[in-house]
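FIELD: query
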Amino acid sequence: MKTIFDLKSRPDWAGFIAGVNETLELTPEYFIRYGRVGSEQWWQLYDRGRISRTVLAGEITHVGPITDEFDEESPIVRIHTDRAVIDYDLEDFWLHPGVRAGRWVQIERAKTVVQTRTGANTWYIDVRVSLMDEDV
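FIELD: result
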């Protein structure tokens, strides 16, 4: 397996982490329970299993532009897993030359559920992404 994204070992992804934390500021209960994503507290909870890990495996079925329901074109990576079809913007680590249709990918995610006054919010944060076959 070839890891193309590892949140913990890549401090250069600080912009990605900052964007996630900015989104989470709308749910301050998240920070109370887990701390800021990427912080020492967050990683300790994750490493100890207090933040759930979800692992998805699937086939990359599309890499490139796609037209959405508004007739706007945007480049994506589409992955079919046994649980869902996931679309990612074609940017950052998804631009790796090994990312192409027909390849299999494994995505490790942090899954958190935070109870707020308006109900439960579920958050998925990609922690590690690997290409599963050796043809990288």
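FIELD: remark
The chain has one domain: 2-131.
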